[in-house]
Specification:
Layout (H helix, E strand, L loop, with lengths): L1 H30 L2 E2 L5 E9 L4 E6 L2 E4 L4 E5 L11 E3 L9 E7 L16 E3 L6 E7 L1 H4 L2 E3 L5 E3 L5 E4 L5 E3 L18 E6 L3 E6 L7 E6 L1
Parallel strand pairs: 1-4, 2-5, 4-16, 12-14
Antiparallel strand pairs: 2-3, 5-14, 6-13, 7-9, 8-9, 10-11, 10-13, 15-16
């Protein structure tokens, strides 16, 4: 009987240690910065959730890669909730979603279709001989790069861009879930960056500025 009790005690102790070790491993895995194997690509979710609750978060929030490796962002949300992956060097290159443009006072705008219940937002106090029209900022909605010299490049949808580390502005455009892109929006379901220089690269979503992430390149 004593031998049986000792054997049972040993088995239960080993089982408890195994459970404890497994739980610690799960917790450490959840809290760790994601690292890559050599020549691999890290996948990051931009957003998530469903019609009941959409998530404005990058997951994983921080990743660690080596020079020459890549990160690909996709949007797994079950509804057409847009997100961007936007790297901004300073506030001067921050792109607002809506921005004023000056047009000649004689400019006339026609709704499409003609009978649509729509009208442009016009601010009358524009420059002399002009009026201000509030419009969507394409540099927020579409993929763009502004390099260190200030040259502007429009990227193709679902771009794969090599990040030099000196850019003033790098934007994915509006990443929407595969098959759920609104008709008038650019068809972007992913964005990939290959990092050519060590450093810390912080980014955000223009639609949700509190939604931030980081890429640590070593």
């Amino acid at each position: 009987m004593i031998k049986d009790n000792v054997f049972l005690y040993v088995v239960m102790t080993v089982f408890a240690i195994a459970l404890s070790t497994g739980a610690m491993g799960i917790e450490n895995e959840a809290n760790a910065t994601t690292q890559t194997n050599a020549t691999s690509t890290v996948n990051v979710d931009a957003g998530g959730g469903n019609a009941s609750m959409s998530l404005s978060v990058f997951s994983p929030k921080a990743v660690e890669i080596n020079v020459g490796e890549s990160v690909t962002w996709t949007n797994p949300t079950q509804v057409p909730e847009p997100h961007t992956v936007t790297f901004i060097q300073s506030n001067e290159t921050y792109a607002e979603l809506f921005t004023p443009f000056a047009v000649d006072n004689s400019t006339q705008f026609m709704a499409v279709p003609p009978n649509a219940n729509s009208e442009p937002s016009i601010v009358p106090q524009g420059p002399e001989g002009a009026k201000l029209v509030i419009a969507l900022n394409d540099r927020a909605f579409s993929p763009f790069v502004i390099d260190t010299e200030g040259s502007i490049e429009r990227l193709a949808p679902n771009a794969n861009y090599s990040m030099k580390g000196t850019e003033k502005y790098v934007n994915s455009g509006t990443i929407t879930p595969e098959g759920l892109t609104p008709p008038t929006w650019p068809p972007i379901s992913e964005f990939t960056l290959t990092f050519e220089k060590p450093g810390t690269y912080n980014y955000l979503c223009i639609f949700h500025p509190w939604m931030t992430g980081s890429v640590f390149v070593q």
